[in-house]
Amino acid sequence: MRRNPRRAYDEQGREIAPPTVGDARAEGETTAAVTCHSCRRHVIITTDRFPAWLPFPDIALRLRCSGCGSRDVSVMKDIQAHYAHAHAETGWRM
Questions:
Q1: pTM score, two decimals?
Q2: Confidence class of residue 89 from pLDDT cuts 50, 70 and 90?
Q3: How far is C-alpha 86 from the chain's CA centre?
Q4: How far apart are CA 25 and CA 72, in angstroms?
Q5: Can you give the pLDDT at residue 22?
Q6: Residue 75 to residue 56: CA distance in whole angstroms
Q7: Cβ neighbours around 1 below 10 Å, total
Q8: For residues 70 and 64, what is the distance between their CA atoms, to the nearest angstrom?
């Protein structure tokens, strides 16, 4: 069986389902941080245009860098928005 390099696997080799865009929205996260590996451009995008069923890591497969045109981009949770959300709910500061 061929393993998908974009997925995580448990000790038995079973694929661990990645969080979806809908899961992130349910947690109050509506943005994502995108980094281009070619030109090092870093931007924050809204996830509103992506369907809820889309696995969060697969957002990168639908993007192209607006600076250099490269498709070699990575996507991760917008940590600044995550911390702001946590502070608003709990008063916790980083």
A1: 0.80
A2: confident
A3: 18
A4: 25
A5: 96
A6: 8
A7: 4
A8: 6
pLDDT digits (tens, 9 = 90+) for 35-85: 999 999 999 999 999 999 999 999 999 999 999 999 999 999 998 888 888
For Cα atoms 62, 78, 88, give the angle at the middle one, nearest 5 degrees.
145
Instruction: Tell me: pLDDT of 94 over 80.
Output: no
Extended beta strands in 10-57, E state: 15-16, 31-36, 42-46
Beta strands in the chain (DSSP E): 8-9, 15-16, 31-36, 42-46, 73-77
How crowded is residue 19: how many other Cβ atoms within 10 Å of its Cβ?
A: 14
Which residues lie closer than 8 Å to 36 by C-beta, 6 or more apart?
42, 65, 67, 68, 70, 72, 73
